């Protein structure tokens, strides 16, 4: 049995017993240098032609590559931990927590795999009998997922270290043979996508203007925290389905499988393989593979447009010429009268025309073709907070 030593941003942080052979997993990941010693085999996972990926390095620098900028107000509620504080689960633990991954515990299915509802002890996080303790969300990798290991690795590396009220909390993980799982805090209200685009039901009601602003402000604070750490983090996959909501509709960014360290050494961007979600990805990234911190701002602008209109970024069921929301709606955002024709009718009477127009203008700035012309997420957050303060003045009674 081999002992695999992982190293993180500031040095080694995980030691996992790995029973499966290296060749068995080689189809799932791109592997770099692998070398061994007599006492234990140390595996150095690297990327394949994807510069600046977060990897498990064999070096152990004395100081973390990350530190929070103390002067930045957006970071005061968050921190980057020196070492991750994650619970290691066995596969048997998580079978217990989910009643053997029964179908009635499924919360959702995505590209990574299936997410199950499970139960753990509130204090120790140890698996508990179903219905006893605290609900958690358990993401189980599909064995057919090509990018699965890389995304699992990135989640552990980033969310294991990042702590902020607007980032989903990773509680623990499991790596046993070919089983890869992640355990998260449970978000009662599901995703922003569900509330914006799914049919209204007893469990999902249309979001009010005030709730939509609250959600995008929370998400903006989360992105701002990532961007303003000393070593910037580019999220790379900002979209409505990755914004999760707790019981009070507080927004938390989830799924860090595509996150990357930002540019370093005076560079303005990172060159990487093009990955993400079409409709949200910034044009410069699609065209060149150059990923900027402000590529995230473009994705945020797309979500703002979805918030305003209640329409998906891409929908081939819409009339011809309207399939791509940005292409169709962007020219209408600067005109007050035209803007009213695309605003989500479910919010009618809940906002002032001034607040709607300012939100539309901010959306336009986020969707600027040139990254340098887009605002920072700190600036975006400040503008949204000012818009939130605009309340509809009650009409004077006759």
UniProtKB/TrEMBL annotation:
Please indicate which superkingdom the organism of origin belongs to. Answer: Eukaryota
> Which top EC class is given?
transferase
> Which GO cellular component terms, listed alphabetically, does the Swiss-Prot or TrEMBL entry include?
plasma membrane
Give the InterPro entries listed for this entry.
Kinase-like_dom_sf (IPR011009), Plant_Ser_Thr_Prot_Kinase (IPR050823), Prot_kinase_dom (IPR000719), Protein_kinase_ATP_BS (IPR017441), Ser-Thr/Tyr_kinase_cat_dom (IPR001245), Ser/Thr_kinase_AS (IPR008271)
Occurrences of domain Protein kinase (ranges)? 101-387
- SUPFAM superfamilies, per the entry: Protein kinase-like (PK-like)
Q: Which residues bind ATP?
A: 140
Which compartments does it reside in?
Cell membrane
Per the UniProt entry, the Enzyme Commission number(s) are 2.7.11.1
Q: What does this protein do?
A: May be involved in plant defense signaling.
- Tell me the protein family, please: Belongs to the protein kinase superfamily. Ser/Thr protein kinase family.
Write down what this protein is called: non-specific serine/threonine protein kinase
């Amino acid at each position: 049995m081999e002992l695999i030593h992982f190293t993180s941003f500031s040095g080694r942080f995980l030691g996992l017993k790995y029973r499966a052979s290296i060749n068995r997993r080689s189809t799932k990941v791109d592997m770099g240098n692998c070398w061994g010693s007599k006492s234990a085999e140390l595996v150095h996972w690297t990327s394949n032609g994807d510069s600046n990926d977060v990897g498990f390095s064999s070096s152990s620098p004395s100081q973390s590559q990350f530190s929070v900028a103390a002067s930045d107000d957006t970071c005061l509620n968050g921190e980057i931990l020196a070492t991750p504080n994650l619970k290691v689960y066995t596969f048997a633990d998580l079978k217990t927590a989910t009643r053997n991954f029964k179908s009635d515990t499924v919360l959702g299915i995505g590209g990574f795999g299936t997410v199950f509802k499970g139960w753990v002890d509130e204090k120790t996080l140890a698996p508990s009998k179903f219905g006893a303790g605290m609900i958690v969300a358990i993401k189980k990798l599909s064995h057919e997922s090509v990018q699965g290991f890389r995304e699992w690795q990135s989640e552990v590396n980033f969310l294991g270290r990042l702590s902020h009220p607007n980032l989903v909390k990773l509680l623990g993980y499991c790596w046993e043979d070919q089983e890869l799982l992640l355990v998260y805090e449970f978000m009662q209200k599901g995703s922003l996508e569900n509330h914006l685009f799914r049919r209204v039901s007893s469990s999902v009601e249309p979001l009010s203007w005030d709730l939509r602003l609250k959600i995008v402000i929370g998400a903006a604070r989360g992105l701002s925290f990532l961007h303003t750490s000393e070593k910037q983090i580019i999220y790379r996959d900002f979209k409505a389905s990755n914004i999760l909501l707790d019981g009070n509709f507080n927004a938390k960014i989830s799924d860090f499988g595509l996150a990357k360290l930002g540019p370093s050494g005076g560079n303005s961007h990172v060159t990487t393989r093009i990955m993400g979600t079409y409709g949200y990805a910034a044009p410069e990234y699609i065209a060149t593979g150059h990923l900027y911190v402000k590529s995230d701002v473009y994705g945020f602008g797309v979500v703002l447009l979805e918030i305003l209109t209640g329409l998906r970024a891409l929908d081939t069921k819409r009339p011809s010429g309207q399939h791509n929301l940005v292409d169709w709606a962007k020219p209408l955002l600067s005109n007050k009268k035209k803007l009213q024709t695309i605003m989500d009718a479910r919010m009618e009477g809940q906002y002032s025309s001034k607040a709607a127009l300012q939100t539309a203008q901010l959306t336009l700035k986020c969707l600027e073709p040139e990254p340098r012309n887009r605002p920072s997420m700190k600036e975006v957050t400040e503008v949204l907070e000012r818009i939130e303060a605009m309340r509809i003045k009650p009409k004077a009674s006759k």
